[in-house]
Structure formats: structure tokens, C-alpha cells
Design goal:
The protein has 175 residues and is mostly beta strands. It has a domain of 112 residues: Immunoglobulin-like. The chain is built from one helix and twelve strands, in the order αββββββββββββ. The strands form three sheets. Strands 5, 7, 8, 10, 11 and 12 form a six-stranded mixed β-sheet that branches. A three-stranded antiparallel β-sheet has the order 2-1-3, with no helix packed on it. It has a three-stranded antiparallel β-sheet with strand order 4-6-9, with no helix packed on it. It starts with a helix and ends in a 13-residue tail after the last strand.
Length: 175
């Protein structure tokens, strides 16, 4: 019985420790803005707060302080593809975000896959993820207000990539 209580306590502490994820932002010599979980030269730390996750439709941003102007409200800010719990079988995963109104001036669109930034797809509302390994993946889109570093997140979407097994190479998509 004590093992169960210990595991529960560790789980609760881990949940509180994971509430905010540091992300670093910097501009390189070519003027390209980068975001990463590792700092680059001249990087500033911004914090993506898990408490600012919203479900659609979004009525407006969560107030995190009186001085920071909120990001513009998006009436619809949802990942349409992949859908929740969708399975893919050795194929590229199509990604599509619906956002109304369009991305506002001064806002930046960023993606994370399993908590890691997808830098190559920043600013894109539609792309594909080819050659993912077998496993479970979680995708999230985030709008960052460049002026105030306030964020607005979509609900995370969990999906699965299935690959033929090395032990059973004839595994195929169920019908």
C-alpha cells in the first residue's frame, strides 16, 4: 500500500513541476527568428504556460497580468488534422490548422511535437510530417504575441503512427 502512495505523490509532484516549459527565442545574423528548448547565442527565455491552453472556440486570452496587452481573440483556433486518436499506417501525417481570423500582425505561429519545437514549420498552417517512427505523438499549435510574449495554445492532439514490425514485415493496415 505504501508503494501506491509513493507513486501517487511522485506523479503529483511531476505534474506541478511540468506546468511551465522554458523556450528560448533568438534572432540569428540573417535575421531569422529561432525558437528552441536549448538557448542559442543572445537568446531570451520565454515561458509557455500550460495554464493558457484553450479549447475552441476561443473567446479571448487568459489574463496573466494587467500590463501585458492580450493576443487578439481567435474565434476558431483548432488543429483539424490529424484528429484525436487517429492512426496512420506507414504514411505521412497531414497537419492542418484552422484559425479565424487569420494570424494577426505581431503574432507568430509555432508547432510542437511531443513537446519539442517543429522549427521548420513555424508560421505554416498546413504541412505534412513524413517518416515518423512508430509510436504515439502529441501535436500542439501556439500563437505567440511577439510584443508581450503572451501565448495561446490549441488543444493538444494525440495520434499514432504504425509501422510494419521487423518480426512480422507483412503487417498491413486493418480493413
Amino acid at each position: 500500500m505504501h508503494l501506491w502512495r509513493t507513486l501517487l505523490a511522485v506523479g503529483v509532484l511531476a505534474a506541478f513541476a511540468a506546468r511551465a516549459a522554458p523556450i528560448y527565442k533568438w534572432t540569428d545574423a540573417s535575421g531569422v527568428v529561432h525558437y528552441s528548448d536549448q538557448p542559442g547565442p543572445g537568446a531570451k527565455q520565454i515561458t509557455v504556460d500550460v495554464d493558457l491552453v484553450h479549447t475552441a472556440p476561443v473567446q479571448g486570452p487568459v489574463d496573466s497580468g494587467p500590463a501585458a496587452p492580450p493576443p487578439a481573440a481567435y474565434a476558431h483556433f483548432v488543429i483539424d488534422s490529424p484528429t484525436r486518436e487517429q492512426s496512420f499506417f506507414s504514411e505521412a501525417v497531414p497537419v492542418h490548422l484552422t484559425m479565424q481570423p487569420a494570424l494577426q500582425p505581431g503574432h507568430e505561429l509555432h508547432w510542437t511535437l511531443n513537446g519539442k519545437p517543429l522549427v521548420a514549420h513555424a508560421g505554416q498552417q498546413q504541412f505534412s510530417l513524413p517518416d515518423l517512427p512508430r509510436g504515439e505523438f502529441t501535436l500542439t499549435a501556439t500563437v505567440i504575441d511577439a510584443g508581450s510574449n503572451r501565448t495561446l495554445n490549441t488543444d493538444s492532439v494525440t495520434f499514432y503512427e504504425h509501422r510494419p514490425s521487423i518480426l512480422n514485415p507483412h503487417t498491413h493496415r486493418p480493413r
